[in-house]
Design brief:
Length: 321
């Protein structure tokens, strides 16, 4: 089961709550506009707009006023500043952020309330603020979905273990954790596509650090196996699909033709593992992850064996002629 959601807009309130601590944000005016949508992830410094030039004004973005913009406004008379700010606030901007903890002009607060535009303030240097805020916005607008599956990290490789209920996804992950690998999420995994095209897996908050093991119940993984046994997030590199042996056509045994799973528009390598009594699933998933790592480094065992066989066959034909 998959549930997919691609947000087209982010309310200012979501940005405020997500970045409140990291960006040191406080709301100083315009609380009534917290549900205004931010339509573009990039941030804008509105120097030209404050001078009265609104051609190509990026009004859909968060507007950031740093030291230069604040000094420019401070150089104006109160009447001129009010006129420029009124034009600025009337352009349906989502919100304004004042960096470096600069004081808020009285006209700013009055116009923010009049137009319902939230005004936030941060202690951070403008450049640092914009860099961090851009990452937060990209995460908020990133395509995302939730999938049924257990996510683990195996020697740097992120593996999503999926399959029908009862096939042993959690038990396989538990075996991997006992081998020294790390759990990202159990049973339900949240996925998002970042700006670089990587799929990032995270746990859902309610089950973070916990696993459900049939016959044992709920366990708290870091309490049993230490803090290194869990990860907050991990890039998805490989999907390990468990299936009951005999219920589907056996995959190519040579390993040359490898299936892929399309997730959030990206092709993710997939390995199909049949489940039957006596098979060590944790060992098989671990081996699949290590083999993927070798192939990523340029070593393909199936291709190498095929080339050796072809060379041997060619040599045999040449010798018989």
């Amino acid at each position: 089961m998959e549930r997919k959601s691609i947000p087209s807009r982010v309310p200012v309130s979501a940005f405020l709550e997500t970045g409140r601590q990291e960006l040191e944000l406080e709301l100083v005016a315009g609380e009534s506009g917290l549900q205004k949508p931010i339509l573009e992830a990039a941030l804008n410094r509105p120097g030209l707009a404050l001078s009265g030039f609104f051609a190509y004004f990026a009004y859909k973005r968060i507007q950031v006023l740093g030291m230069a913009e604040h000094a420019y406004l401070a150089s104006m008379t109160a009447a001129e500043r009010t006129k420029r700010l009124r034009e600025f606030f009337s352009k349906r901007i989502p919100c304004v952020i004042i960096t470096r903890n600069r004081k808020i002009f009285p006209e700013f607060s009055a116009l923010a309330e009049e137009f319902g535009v939230p005004v936030l303030r941060s202690r951070q240097i403008t450049m640092h603020f914009i860099n961090a805020a851009t990452i937060i916005m990209e995460n908020l607008v990133a395509p995302r979905m939730t999938v049924q599956g257990t996510m683990v990290e195996i020697m740097g490789i992120g593996v999503l273990i999926e399959g029908k209920p009862g096939l042993g996804k959690s038990e396989t992950a538990l075996g991997l954790i006992k081998k020294g690998h790390s759990l990202v999420s159990d049973d339900v995994t949240a996925l998002r596509l970042d700006s670089a095209g990587a799929i990032i897996a995270t746990p859902v908050s309610v089950t973070r650090y916990h696993m459900e093991i049939r016959g044992l119940g709920i366990i708290h993984v870091p309490s049993l196996f230490g803090v290194t046994s869990v990860r907050e997030e991990k890039r998805l590199d490989l999907v390990a699909t468990l299936y009951e042996s005999g219920t589907m056509e056996e995959p190519d045994r040579s390993g040359q033709f490898r299936p892929v799973r399309q997730i959030l528009g990206m092709d993710v390598p997939q390995v199909l593992i049949g489940v039957k009594p006596g098979r060590d699933l944790a060992n098989l998933v671990e081996t699949a992850a290590l083999d993927y790592k070798l192939r990523r480094l340029g070593h393909d065992a199936a291709k190498e064996l095929d080339e050796k066989l072809m060379a041997l066959m060619s040599a045999g034909r040449a010798g018989s002629e």
